């Protein structure tokens, strides 16, 4: 689903970066993590099932350090970590992480997670669709990749529903993963085919 609003003037608004809404869809707001989200992210991290790509549980201090790093990513690269909020409450997160020194163009790795109690509502698919639109229309990426455990059927559905295609299976962060790829040209063709471009 296409985002209905975007705000990306990180250095032009005069407001703290964490207060700027990044993307909005009809049901969701995707924004940078604020200080109030640190506790919620800690809780999300503690509840995520074993299939999440998230590392072992982090303490609050580590999450606060990550929040500062993620905010810095937006300033440096124009990509990063977003909280997925529904009705003002965080329900998960999505991230585009720049892949440095990609020889075939500007690329980022996509990752996402939804709080288990909020799964099954299509939030991940909707958030990923908005982030992909941002990636290709605003950030100027040439490729987006994602690594998903082959038996994580919900995440496989999310990436495939959003047009990513499997290209390889192998070890990633010590786990068996299927790598998916979506070139910007393919995404644009998909959008034209469904009437979103």
Structure write-up:
- This protein is an alpha+beta fold and 197 residues long.
- It has one domain: 3-Layer(aba) Sandwich (Aminopeptidase).
- It is 32% helix and 29% strand.
- It has helices at 37-47, 60-77, 123-138, 153-161, 184-193; strands at residues 5-6, 21-24, 28-31, 81-86, 89-99, 107-114, 143-148, 165-172, 175-183.
- It has a nine-stranded mixed sheet, with helices on both faces.
- Strand 5 (89-99) and strand 6 form a beta hairpin.
- It starts with a strand and ends with a helix.
How do the strands and helices of this protein lay out in sequence?
Blueprint: E1 5-6, E2 21-24, E3 28-31, H1 37-47, H2 60-77, E4 81-86, E5 89-99, E6 107-114, H3 123-138, E7 143-148, H4 153-161, E8 165-172, E9 175-183, H5 184-193
Parallel strand pairs: 6-7
Antiparallel strand pairs: 1-2, 2-3, 3-4, 4-5, 5-6, 7-9, 8-9
The low-confidence runs, each spanning 5 or more residues with pLDDT under 50, are 1-13, 49-55
Number of helices: 5
CATH architecture: 3-Layer(aba) Sandwich
Q: What is the CATH homology-level superfamily?
A: Gcn5-related N-acetyltransferase (GNAT)
Helix content percent band: 25-40%
- Number of strand segments: 9
Overall structural class, as computed from helix and strand content, comes to alpha+beta
Give the termini distance in whole angstroms: 12 Å
Average pLDDT reading: 81
Strand order of the largest sheet: 1-2-3-4-5-6-7-9-8
Number of domains: 1
CATH topology type = Aminopeptidase
Most strands sheet: 9 strands, mixed
Radius of gyration from the CA trace? Answer: 16 Å
CATH classification class = Alpha Beta
Order of helices and strands: EEEHHEEEHEHEEH
Dominant shape: globular
- Portion in beta strands: 25-35%
